[in-house]
Amino acid sequence: MTNQKFPFQRLPNDLCSMVLKTVDPHEIIAYPFTSKKALSMVRSLHIPIKKTKIKIGWPSIYLDFGESNVLFNWKMGNNEEGMTSFDDIPISVDVTTRKKSLTFDFLTMQFWPIFETTSFTWSNQEKSIVEWVKHLCSISRCERYEAEFQIGKLRFDLQSLQDTFTASAASFTCRVASGDDEGFLLSPNPGLRF
């Protein structure tokens, strides 16, 4: 058996798109990091996502694709530090995928769900948290984004928060929590609820 790599990026665009439609969601998400052409191709696929949840403070993004989901947890420091600004660059990204399938039990004559979980560690791609969020939102098509902001050491101004998320969000709900106080902040954009 040879140790040669498949020349995926040399495929014609139509074949490359067909192959991308067959791979797992986390692989589609990773592919745009290879080139601008790859990013353009993945954006053209309009990956359908049922729901996107973004948590800022202890930053993570959860992408629900229906039968599978992908969770991105950004490691901010060696001591389980939280994020202090949207411009923070994580030291690494823990990626967890979960696939749902069904198995048939002949004793009970019923289908039962089976979940397969796989974990990876990705490099930070030299992207800040804001750049990661924008990247992940830009390559997908999601009707509803949810964000939760746990404010501890995190400092941000509302206008920069709105500017960060309004460009790609069709519908966006945001909950801001600080200690015992929590609430929603309203945005002038009717599709964006803060």
TrEMBL record:
<dbReference type="Pfam" id="PF00646">
    <property type="entry name" value="F-box"/>
</dbReference>
<dbReference type="InterPro" id="IPR053222">
    <property type="entry name" value="Zygotic_Embryogenesis-Asso"/>
</dbReference>
<feature type="domain" description="F-box">
    <location>
        <begin position="5"/>
        <end position="52"/>
    </location>
</feature>
<protein>
    <recommendedName>
        <fullName>F-box domain-containing protein</fullName>
    </recommendedName>
</protein>
<dbReference type="InterPro" id="IPR001810">
    <property type="entry name" value="F-box_dom"/>
</dbReference>
